[in-house]
Each structure stands twice: as C-alpha cells, then as structure tokens.
Task: inverse folding
C-alpha cells in the first residue's frame, strides 16, 4: 500500500534541546497527522495539518510543539525545548481526504525519540 | 472524548484456527472504524475498515462486524497463518479527523 517515510528512525537528545522529526507523506495526500505512543501505552493523536494550517490538536500538543510543511517538503514536528516526558515513538500519517478511501490514514514506521 | 477498549490483550492460536478480536467505543458520533496490523518492527498496516452505516464487511479471511446500537465491533480472522502474527489495533473516528486507538491485541499463530 501507500508508504509514508519518517526520518530519523531513532533520535537521542538531551533535555532542553530542540528536535525536528521529519515525515515524507504519500505524494497525493492532503492531510497529515502526528501521533505519539509512549512505551506500553496506546497510540494517541497529537495534531492534524491541512492546507498549511493546524486543523485540530489534542491536549498532548503542548506549546513547545509545532508543525509545518514548507513548500511541499517534509511535514515536520518540532519540539523546543524537549522534556523527559517527550520520550516516545512518534508516528506520522497521511490521508488523501478524497473519494471512498479518503479517510484512510497511512502510517510511517515511527521515530523513536529518547530524551535524556 | 472518545475511548476505545479492545479485548483480549493477547491470544495464542494454532495455525488454521480462527481468531476473534472485540472492540467497543463510547462516542456515538464516531462514524469510521479502521483496523490496523503491526508486525514486529514494522509500520502500522491498514487491513480493513467499516463505516457506521454498515453492519458487516469482508476482505478475504477478515470479517468485520459492527453493531451501532451496542457500539461494538469484532474482527474475525479465519484459517490463520503464522504470517498473521502481529498486534491488531481497532480505531474510531468521528467527524473530526483524529483516530482514537484501542490498546491492541497481540496475536501469535503457532505453526
């Protein structure tokens, strides 16, 4: 099926530093998402992005988080500054928003972030 | 907000047997229910979905049943193979775009 790519696969940083997680969504998709999964817990929605804007976000999407997709390049999640509780796997997803399969979200393999 | 509960958390079956995974949700506004499979070390893979105006959907060895009244779904996998070993996630989506996931069911199919 359609493939979403994520870079890097793993990232280790010191608390307080900035980190940028990169997502290469499916080429014709219009909606982009980030989800967070802490080890042993359920995957939880963070944010949805469409047409250059955040459409919705959860309470997990703290002020230190930001997303953008400049000029059709990577869809990024930036955390600045990072905190220990940001350690998790971050999954990117995309959907076309068009037609019968428009709601289906396709996921990347995840970026494992460890904040020390 | 929406809450999705998934049971069992894990199960082990012999190759060829059937598997039943149950899922319940709380928000009656949820209208779309995709299921995903995650093999060890791999990404979430979409496997089947159903909308709230349907009661049943089949895709090869997968059958998904939906009961709007009880807010319950069940995924039935027949003639299981070792390649079906994975964690299976149900999810729910309302008119907003966010998916709410269950906690997953780890299925192990023994050869």
Result:
């Amino acid at each position: 099926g359609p493939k979403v790519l994520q870079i890097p696969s793993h990232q280790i940083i010191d608390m307080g530093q900035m980190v940028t997680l990169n997502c290469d969504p499916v080429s014709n998709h219009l909606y982009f998402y980030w989800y967070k999964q802490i080890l042993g817990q359920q995957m939880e929605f963070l944010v949805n992005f469409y047409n250059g804007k955040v459409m919705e976000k959860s309470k997990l999407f703290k002020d230190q988080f930001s997303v953008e997709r400049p000029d059709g390049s990577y869809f990024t999640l930036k955390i600045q500054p990072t905190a220990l509780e940001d350690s998790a796997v971050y999954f990117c997803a995309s959907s076309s928003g068009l037609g019968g399969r428009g709601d289906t979200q396709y996921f990347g393999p995840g970026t494992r972030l460890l904040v020390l | 907000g929406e809450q999705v509960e998934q049971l069992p958390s894990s199960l082990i079956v012999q190759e060829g047997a059937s598997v039943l995974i149950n899922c319940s949700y709380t928000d009656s506004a949820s209208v779309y229910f995709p299921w995903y499979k995650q093999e060890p070390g791999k990404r979430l893979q979409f496997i089947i979905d159903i909308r709230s105006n349907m009661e049943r959907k089949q895709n090869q060895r997968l059958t998904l049943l939906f009961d709007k009244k009880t807010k319950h779904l069940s995924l039935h996998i027949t003639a299981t193979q070792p390649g079906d070993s994975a964690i299976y996630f149900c999810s729910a989506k309302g008119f907003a775009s966010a998916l709410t996931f269950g906690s997953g069911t780890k299925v192990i199919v023994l050869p």
